[in-house]
Here is the input.
Amino acid sequence: MPRFSFLVFLALLSSTTSCQRWTEQAITSASEAHFPAAIQDLRDFVAIPNDGHYPEQILANVNWAGPRLGSLDFNTQVLTVNEVPFVLATKEYHPDRPWVLFYLQIDGQPVDASQWDQPSPFEVALKRMDAHGQWQTIPWPAGDKVPEPDDRFFGRSTSDSKGPALSLINALEILRDRGEKPAFNVKLILDFQEEMSSPQLPELVRQYRQEMAADRLVVMDGTRHVSNLPTLTFGARGIATTTLRVFGPRQPMHSGQYGNFVPNPVFRLSKLLAGMKDDDGRVLIPGWYDGIELSEEEKKRMNAVPENADSIAARIGIARPERVGETYQEALAYPTLNVRGLKAAYVGGAVRTIIPEEAIAMIDIRLVPESDGQRLLDALREYVEAQGYHLVREEPTEAERRTHDKIAALYGKVSYAAYRTPLDAPIGDWLGRALTRAFGTPPVKMRTTGGSQPISPFIQALGLPAVSVRIPNPDNNIHAANENLRVGNYLEGIRTCLGVLTESL
Here is the structure.
């Protein structure tokens, strides 16, 4: 037998043996035995504040993560782009096998500690739901005992996304401690400004393309499907944002003296917003859904996901969902138009009888691969102008106030595009096999997530197929107060990663 063929044969034999050894029972047993150490890891790592706006917080997380990966014999480098650090960790386990790059988000959303139901968002609290549906803090189990699966770890970034990152790190540690290796070579890239849209990530690839070269990309970010079953997601929406300001009088006016004379910008803004959608939630702006056609085969694959629109609506607390798609999964295939914030005058105890000087709507648009963000922003601008508005850059001049009845400002930007990997891509088959072996049943495969991930430029620059492995529970309050990670999900996260690491490419 030629030497090359013999080496390939040995590699395949070794991989098969690894898969046979790491059965569902073996993966579960190893994960459970290691779980007390993983819980301590979570408490230690979450204790480090991680708002990416603050260099000292980034540095503190770099100084924790780098040595932690170094303890697993990874070669770690701090790569700096425009004064923003990333950590790249690499380890070649097999000279003749492919490389898999794992993307790990380490930063979290800013916190308002006054809104949390615990002393500190960075001190993990263990909680259990009482008979009244309220989360109550409970003592940590003694020794190596672990909490119940439905208990939850509350703290900033437990779910988004230090918990998923630690699931992978602890799975690597389990293999190391047992004298075993992953079935492929591993690279990890740690991002400390994901919640700021990772502004330096594309430049990172341009500067360090060779160092980050790999065959596949696994994204360790995002929550599971609403069923909370093991989930793979093959894409993420992009996002564009814009602000619409409708101007009224130069300054607030007395509503008694000037009511019926001075137009109120709130009513004008309301009419603009109401005209953007029909009663079914479909966007009426011309061209909004151009280029999006779902074949029957695509619909069949999307709707194979185990969910029920009525149960989702009931859980959320609405009587009837919008009708942008025939199902929840189909709705994710279209760009959105969402008002994320409104402001005009005062409310509550500060309310006063005035006609406000302006009304503001802050809008986000979730993008799909078929929709160009700039084209949609331009379509929105054309819609506002078609309603008779004179658009200004910031504040109208006195001449513009005297000349134009309707004045508005509209300004925005495309933060990043969407990405999508085909459901039948080899990376999906590989990850599907891994999770099936780890849990005994195939994972949920979602065509895309409704949320956005700022890594599409990163993915495009590397030219890699990418799939997101989802670990946290869907009801985890990410980006809000009382973010949490279900205990069972964290344990299953380690099982997931063990399955992936031991699955041959």
Observations:
- Residues 6-10 have pLDDT under 50 and may be disordered.
- The first helix runs from residue 3 to 21.
